[in-house]
Specification:
With about 150 residues, this protein is mainly β. About 5% of the residues lie in helices and about 35% in strands. A hairpin with a 4-residue loop joins strand 8 and strand 9. Bound molecules: zinc ion (ZN).
């Protein structure tokens, strides 16, 4: 994935901080390296996000045959919603923004906001192909995933 998929934000972060814990810290470490990791079953290759057990083998949660693996970072819009109200003061400069549920090519659903010049407008935009964009926040030391529509 090319570096054009990276946004560097030097704006002070005014929003709630991401909840990084032991179950997702490797995912956030991956984002800093500009990799979108999914939780994958070594036995059947099924992908999950966030961490889950593999439904194909009735595994224990986080069983030994699961691992983080790099995804394509590509998917399609599963659903979206245009927000005209900020739910947190940190979002008010970005109104309206589009919050989307993305179905990754590997299968899992992830939610994020969309960036870029093309935004979905109506129901016909469900299914539009998207790719991940990594938003680096060097001052705060984390990277967040966004998605943008690709032609
Ligand atoms: Zn499996």
């Amino acid at each position: 994935m090319s570096e054009s998929n990276v946004i560097v934000s030097n704006e002070p972060w005014q929003k709630p901080l991401p909840n990084i814990d032991k179950d997702n810290e490797e995912f956030y470490e991956g984002l800093k390296k500009h990799k979108f990791l999914v939780w994958r079953c070594k036995t059947c290759g099924a992908s999950y996000w966030p961490k889950a057990y593999c439904i194909n083998h009735e595994n224990e949660p986080f069983a030994a045959n699961m691992e983080w693996a790099e995804s394509s970072g590509r998917g399609k819009i599963f659903a979206f919603n245009r927000h005209h109200m900020a739910f947190h003061p940190g979002f008010k400069d970005e109104i309206p923004y589009v919050y989307a549920l993305i179905e990754l090519d590997e299968g899992p659903l992830v939610s994020s906001t969309l960036v870029g010049s093309t935004m979905p407008k109506d129901v016909y935009d469900v299914g539009q192909k998207v790719e991940v964009v990594y938003e680096d926040h060097p001052a705060e030391g984390f990277t967040l995933p966004r998605f943008r529509i690709v032609d």
